[in-house]
Request: fold
Amino acid sequence: MGRGRFNLLFYYGIAYLVFLYAPVLLLPMFSFNDSIYVAFPFKGFTFKWYEQMAASAGLTSAFWNSVKVGAGVAVVSTIFGLLGAKAVTRYRLPWSGPVTGMIMLPLVIPGIVIGVALLSIIRKVFDLELSLLTISAGHVLLCTPFAMMVLMSRLEGFDKSLEEASLDLGENGWRTFWRVTFPLTLPGIVASLLLCFTTSFDEFILAFFLAGNEVTLPIYIWGQLRFPNRLPATLALGSCILLGSFVIVTFSEWLRRRGAKSALPAGL
Amino acid sequence: MNQRQDFISIQNVSKHFGAVRAVDALTCRIAQGEFFSLLGPSGCGKTTLLRMLAGFESPTAGELFIDGQPMSAVPPHQRPTNMVFQNYAIFPHLDVRDNIAYGLRRRRLSRRETDAEVEKMLELIKLPGYGARRADQLSGGQRQRVALARALVRQPKVLLLDEPLGALDKKLREEMQIELRQLQRAVGITFVFVTHDQEEALTMSDRILVMSKGRALQVDNSTLLYESPNCREVADFIGTMNFFDSTVASVNGEQIELDAGPAGRLKVGSGGRTLAPGMSVTLAIRPEKLQIVRQKPGEGANFIQGTIGAEAYLGDRSHYYVEVPGLPRRIAVALQNAARSLDNSASTGQSVWLTWEPGAAVLLTE
Reply:
């Protein structure tokens, strides 16, 4: 009986994974296909789309724009997230529930609503030029909740008395942070940086509303889709991003789990 | 040595968490070099008081003085105190050496001086050669010692210990009690020790403050706390006690006669207190001060008649629970099994008399 149940679940699992990942796998497959059209049957194996991708100046600059925005957003969001997480987990804060809720809100508000709202504030209220900075600001709004969640679980995982012990042993709050809190939170901080970077790197809707002359990679790709002959190079790019994201996310998850283990009070 | 009696002075200190009065207008003095225990059931405010001494909580009212200095404006990292935490709080990312050396950073010692200090401490806590171990490679007892060394290496004026033996098993705990006591005598530092274990407090302390619901009930040494508790709560918390609700029947100088209801007429000394007939008081007698006799004692002696309701053989001693018609609780009696005997002379259902020496009972007026 148990065996039959297991089999049914097993096939369900397989079907589920195929449904999820088969379309994604088509991307790298067609990026090696020697044809402009994304259609079976395959015409032949080629690297030329990758060469075309590397040769494209617009693509390269969009890529570096995304890296710049992603890196900046990762650092700023992680700092905000760390401060927020520390406030919520370490102090008896009035209204900490509602405040946390407000910070988490961008996770559930549709991106398009935030995009329109930010665009009208930036243009109509502050009258700022759209640039990579405005994209970054939007992304910080989106990434801070992620950072805060990762870091809250990390800070909750380690014993508050470790920080008290440091204060007790003569170190003030600032040095306590660097000698105890920071090293023990480090895996969480790295995970948060990576998570924020990939979130920003992938993000389309906010960037679409908030981009000026300089575009990020997702917007560049969106623009390229109008030209059929550029589609295969975009597939090549998509494959590269897929691989990169996969590596980063796997690494950050590995770090998080390792951290979760070492944060347990040793022994007892 | 010129020891100051008010080395630590707690003056009218209160700590409220919202509506909860964790510590309520508590006043107490602790002498220099004393092993002082804060004893009470969980939630009595003893840990809050300790954390106020360490600086982790600030008093809602009142002031704490250590070595004559008011502490309210002094942050934890500048106080002359160090703490051994309940869970030891050993830094998991540092090895034993760096844990012990953690608090030496501000002293700006050379590496060699630091190493010497650490070695000295490892010697003191009997863990030489353990410097390179990580926290998760230590047993509970070893971790407790490292926490102790980490605090003592800073040569604090006061060492605060928050139930440091609670996590250890019974045998190890008893060993550590003796070791900790010896260590305290050796280093001469004032120890303030929080525990809910009355036996532990009695074994280790010079003086004990018994707390309940944020208030100080009694401050005395172990013997006085045990033999002459000042109220029913202390008597009940420390050891086992038999209570007899009574009213004063007659006063004849030092001699008081009590009407203990079902337990009959009992005589007790007034202990210098002024009592008047009709006052309600409590007579308290420890189980081991009672004797079980088979014949009715002679005139003049205190006695209560009852039947043995239950008995428990504990090896070195036996406990008997004597029922007296009309008394709400059975009277506990503890007898030392001093002579080796395979024959238990007192047994369940037997009718017996309980008697005690004139000075063995305590008269409680509260």
Q: What stands out?
A: The mean pLDDT of chain B is 90.
